[in-house]
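REQUEST FORM: STRUCTURE PREDICTION
Request ID: SP-0412
Submitted by: Lab K.M.
Chain count: 1
Length (residues): 333
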Amino acid sequence: MAPPQRCPLCRQTFFCGRGHVYSRKHRRHLKEALERLLSRVEAARKAVRAAQVERYVPEHDLCCWCPCCGREVRRHLSHGNLTVLHGGLLEHLASPEHKKATNKFWWDNKAEIHMKEKFLISPQDYARFKKSMVKGLDSFEEKEDEVIKEMAAQIREVEQSRQEVVQSVLEPQTEPDPEEGSSAPGSTWKETNSQIASSSQQPSQLDLQPAPELDWMETGQPLTFIGHQDTPGVGNIHSGATPPWMIQDDEHSFGKQQIGPSYEEFLKEKEKEKLKKLPPDRVGANFDHSSSTTAGWLPSFGRVWNNGRRWQSRHQFKTEAAARNKQSHKEKC
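STATUS: Completed
RESULT:
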């Protein structure tokens, strides 16, 4: 009997010697393992002439399994914040250790000879990949410089617009021409505001003052007079009345009004909620606690206040109940 051997592809121990590598199960597992690696090798071969350089992301740390070497290999080559796609796999396929392990793997598993070259990278192809990688790094840096310039231009535009807004706010406003006299709208509004301020100093006076006559139809004014909008009997701040927030009447003092139930009502309602959870047929459920009782009142159930022990009261109660039942039975007969 042949000594036991371990097959890493089939993941089992066999005792048939070298005949295991020719079995149908082993050939199927060998084909599946080589096809998984071949798809990644073909994608890496396309990057030999045109290397792709990207900014590093955590997904670039993915690894793939090399059945020839029996270990995991990094697919991409990362350095700092830059990543060369398929650089790690190409570096592994071009290494002499991988070539030696591939020759041994093909011999041990009796794989097809013409397939071996597809899993190897010649030194010439790897040198060509290094040249394309240098060009890819240069083009990536140029693109990054262009992006930085565009971002700098946008920042300058935003800063310039911000400075223009600040400058427009800080510029002194033009003063009105003194030749226009007191007919300017600013002077008219100043007189109105002074009258309103004088009336607000006396909050007790609720008499409505007549509205000031403003010269709205004066030439050169862009405003349109639509008539006095006064409600009879009710004044407003524009007609010289006292503002409502300056009135100290009782009807406007909301702080004295109580909102919601009182604390005592809340406690009573809370006690009612507790009583609702108790059984309705309990002793004393319907007792009126507000009724007046004498000091000598005692309940007539349970015989708790009788002299003697509790069991004596129980026997006495049963005796009285039996006598009561016998008497009622005699009355029926």
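NOTES: Strands lie at 5-7, 12-14, 53-55, 63-66, 71-74, 77-79, 82-84.
Reviewed by: T.R.
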